[in-house]
Amino acid sequence: MSLPEFTGTQVNYYMVCHRKLWLFTHDITMEREHEIVQIGKLVGQETYKREQKEIALDDRVVLDWMELQDNSDGTKTIHEVKKGRSVEAAHRMQMLYYLYYLHSKGIEAVGQLDYPLLKKSERLQLTPQATSELRMVLKDIERILESSEVPPRLTTKRFCEKCAYFELCWS
């Protein structure tokens, strides 16, 4: 299994909007000053305060936190903290990417998406079906990023209005 060369953010953005993925990857970043992004970062910083935050692996993967105690089957549990579930499929694929990345490094883990504002969580495992789906996503990310053309904006504004790139795409 070859090591993927993308970040978790890129996988997340792919699931939400190919244009956002392309712009972000080509160093057009709008997130720093965006209020909703800052709120999400604050939720991550202010919850689970006792846990070691932001464990970086190879400049590609940044885990929100990992449980120190192994599971009974010897696997690790990694956590990703999210503000809300509006882009839940993107959250899942990002977590599956982290699990895939760890697996490629010889670390077996299960994932947990934590939604502290909703008081909910969801556990994920890297199954053969999930691995197959993720590999297709990674291949498509590569195709998008190799293009010199910016992908078209979404035809519906469902996700766009809260996006850091909204004004760039819609003005």
Short description:
The protein has 171 residues and is of the alpha+beta class.
Topology readout:
Elements: H1 8-16, H2 18-25, H3 35-46, E1 55-57, E2 61-63, E3 65-66, E4 76-81, H4 88-104, E5 109-115, E6 120-124, H5 128-146, H6 166-170
Parallel strand pairs: 4-5
Antiparallel strand pairs: 1-2, 3-4, 5-6
Walk across the major sheet and give the strand order.
Answer: 3-4-5-6
Residue share in β-strands: 15-25%
Helix share, percent:
40-55%
What is the CATH class designation?
Alpha Beta
* Contiguous helical run count: 6
Averaging pLDDT over every residue, what do you get? 86
Q: Which architecture name does CATH use?
A: Alpha-Beta Complex
Q: What is the ordering of alpha helices and beta strands?
A: HHHEEEEHEEHH
CATH fold call: Lambda Exonuclease, Chain A
> What class do helices, strands and sheet pairing give?
alpha+beta
User: Radius of gyration from the CA trace?
Assistant: 16 Å
Q: Which runs of at least 5 residues are low in confidence (pLDDT < 50)?
A: none
For the secondary structure, the number of strands is 6
Form type: globular
Sheet with the most strands?
Answer: 4 strands, mixed
End-to-end distance: 43 Å
How many domains would you count in the coordinates? 1
What does this structure look like?
It is built from six helices and six strands, in the order αααββββαββαα. The longest helix has 19 residues. Helix content is 41%, strand content 15%. It has 171 residues and is of the alpha+beta class. Strands 3-4-5-6 form a four-stranded mixed sheet, covered by helices on one side. A two-stranded antiparallel sheet has the order 1-2. The chain has one domain: Alpha-Beta Complex (Lambda Exonuclease, Chain A), CATH 3.90.320.10.
